[in-house]
Amino acid sequence: MESTAEQAASTVEFRITGYAHPDAQALSAEVQQEYVRRYGDPDETVMHPEDFEAPAGLFMIAYLDGRPVACGGWRAKQAGPNGLRDGDVELKRMFVVPAARGRGLARAVLHRLEETAVEAGHTRVILETGSEQPEAIALYGSEGYTAIRKFGIYKDHPLSICLGKELPEAPATV
What we know:
Radius of gyration: 16 Å
CATH superfamily: Gcn5-related N-acetyltransferase (GNAT)
Oligomer: single chain
Helix content: 25-40%
CATH class: Alpha Beta
């Protein structure tokens, strides 16, 4: 366990890497193992790297003292069934490695993802999580996310929870 002084001395850097980046793939593999531990199976949602490239999306990694320790991304959605709207972005692969938890990294990644979605002109963040992820549910609830109509491949799964948050308008440019 690191002391408070050691934690304070740590340097966090956020990089937009894309989903195809080797560090993104390594963290994604770790989160899949987390799903296996919690649910018995990996997430079978189809993830295409191009979905996370501008302007359709974004994927970022938080590096702690040069090591990739947290990630998350968003991909633009279009209006469709289950209450999806033009202007929505879907949050995907939010994850913090166990050794780096408790430092506020998930909240920091979430804030940066929301900021970049606003800058890209999006109006709402939506996500799907599960009842076996109480830490995620608590984080999203504390950040103003509320229940929305279920969507995606797990919409009929009893453990699935879908949340959304309206985003502020981007500041007008002068």
